[in-house]
Write a structure and sequence with these properties.
about 65% helix; about 90 residues; 7 helices; mainly alpha; protein phosphatase regulator activity
C-alpha cells in the first residue's frame, strides 16, 4: 500500500511541466537581442552559473566580449542614468 502511494506521488509530480523556459532564453530567441537587454535581467548571473549554453554562446561572441571589456575598462558617460552607470 505504501508503494502504491509513493508511485502515485511520483507520477503526479512528473505530470507537471517543470521544464520552464527562462526569460533569458526567451530573449536569446530574438534575433536582435542586445547585451544590455540581457544584462538588465535579474537572473542573468544565475543563468551563467547554471551554464546556460545558449547564454554562454551569446556572451562568448566577439562583439559581446568587446562590449563587456569596454564596459569594465571605460568610465561610463556622465549623462547616463545612474542605475545603468553602476
Amino acid at each position: 500500500r505504501t508503494f502504491h502511494r509513493s508511485f502515485v506521488a511520483v507520477t503526479m509530480f512528473w505530470k507537471f511541466d517543470l521544464n520552464t523556459t527562462s526569460h533569458v532564453d526567451k530573449l536569446l530567441d530574438k534575433e536582435d537581442v542586445t547585451l544590455r537587454e540581457l544584462m538588465d535581467e535579474d537572473d542573468v548571473l544565475q543563468e551563467c552559473k547554471a551554464q546556460n549554453q545558449k547564454l554562454l554562446g551569446f556572451l562568448c561572441r566577439q562583439q559581446c566580449m568587446e562590449e563587456l571589456v569596454s564596459l569594465i575598462t571605460r568610465d561610463p558617460p556622465l549623462d547616463m542614468e545612474e542605475k545603468v552607470r553602476f
